């Protein structure tokens, strides 16, 4: 296929027992022009689960440095024109990439995210559709200033976005995604798909459970950093 159609899916992996299922969900996509990049962030457990897929993925091993550093290494190794992130414990629905690319091309946007379901350790869905649609760009900005409804594993974006705003901030341990979305927001239009295209796994070992208080502090830090710029952006949008 044309190089401009390739999607690079980066899977940061650190001691995650579900990583094989994540890889399978990408390899099973209906959209054919995908490269799967698994960045092993210094794992000491479950690396054997990747053995059956090594011929079908790009495998990169690095010393432990956190999710942002793994994502950035994967982005730098990518050859696609679009980037998607899949956490090692989450699952893409089979037509996720195909539908998101269609949405981006139809709307002429550079960033797309979707609704999703919660699943448990056994892969069983235990929620309705988790969806936060935006009525307008003003609504989007207002919402993003107060919290982050964007699930990182649901995102597809044009690689050119990184040339404009930079990569993930490796100093942030828990909110590297929120930080990046807030940097993207002033410069690019977004698309949203209300159909759930991701299964987001909730389990006792996930970072938001183990490091909940530290994550809350980092969220406040990120919001304070971008408050002024986003307030100015919000005023401009309201004046249109």
Features:
single chain, 240 residues, alpha/beta, 8-stranded mixed β-sheet, 8 helices, 8 strands, 21% strand, globular
Q: Could you walk me through the main structural features you see in this protein, from its secondary elements to its overall organization?
A:
This protein is α/β, with parallel strands linked by helices. It is built from eight helices and eight strands. The chain has helices spanning 19-27, 67-77, 96-107, 137-146, 160-165, 176-184, 207-210, 212-239, and strands spanning 7-13, 34-41, 58-62, 82-85, 91-92, 111-119, 156-158, 190-201. Strand 1, helix 1 (19-27) and strand 2 (34-41) form a beta-alpha-beta unit. Helix 4 (137-146) runs antiparallel to helix 8 (212-239) and helix 6 packs parallel to helix 8 (212-239). The longest helix has 28 residues, at 212-239.
Break the fold down into its secondary structure elements and pairings:
Blueprint (H helix, E strand, L loop, with lengths): L6 E7 L5 H9 L6 E8 L16 E5 L4 H11 L4 E4 L5 E2 L3 H12 L3 E9 L17 H10 L9 E3 L1 H6 L10 H9 L5 E12 L5 H4 L1 H28 L1
Parallel strand pairs: 1-2, 1-4, 2-3, 6-8
Antiparallel strand pairs: 4-7, 5-8, 6-7
Helix pairs in contact: 4-8, 6-8
Class by SSE composition: alpha/beta
Please summarize the sheet with the most strands.
8 strands, mixed
| Euclidean distance between termini CA atoms | 41 Å
Q: Order of strands in the sheet with the most strands?
A: 3-2-1-4-7-6-8-5
- What is the assembly state of the chains in this entry? single chain
Shape: globular
Q: How many strand units?
A: 8
Mean pLDDT: 94
Q: What percent of residues are in strands?
A: 15-25%
**pLDDT < 50 runs, ≥5 residues:** none
**Rg calculated over all Cα atoms:** 17 Å
Individual helix count: 8
């Amino acid at each position: 296929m044309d190089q401009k159609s390739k999607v690079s899916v980066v899977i940061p992996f650190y001691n995650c027992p579900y990583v094989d299922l994540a890889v399978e969900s990408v390899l099973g996509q209906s959209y054919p022009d995908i490269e799967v990049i698994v960045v092993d962030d210094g794992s000491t457990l479950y690396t054997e689960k990747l053995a059956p897929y090594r011929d079908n993925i790009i495998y990169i091993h690095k010393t432990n440095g956190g999710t942002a550093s793994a994502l950035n290494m994967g982005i730098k190794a990518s050859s696609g024109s679009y980037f998607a992130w899949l956490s090692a414990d989450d699952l893409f629905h089979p037509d996720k990439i195909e539908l998101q690319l269609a949405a981006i091309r139809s709307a002429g946007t550079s960033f797309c995210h979707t609704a999703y379901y919660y699943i448990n350790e056994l892969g069983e869905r235990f929620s309705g559709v988790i969806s936060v649609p935006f009525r307008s760009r003003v609504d989007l900005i207002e919402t993003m200033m107060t919290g982050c409804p964007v699930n990182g594993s649901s995102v597809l974006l044009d690689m050119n976005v990184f040339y404009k705003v930079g990569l993930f901030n490796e100093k942030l341990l828990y909110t590297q995604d929120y930080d990046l979305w807030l940097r993207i927001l002033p410069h690019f239009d977004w698309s949203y798909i209300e159909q759930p295209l991701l299964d987001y796994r909730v389990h006792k070992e996930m970072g938001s459970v183990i490091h909940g208080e530290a994550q809350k502090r980092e969220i406040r830090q990120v919001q304070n950093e971008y408050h002024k710029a986003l307030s100015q952006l919000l005023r401009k949008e309201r004046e249109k």
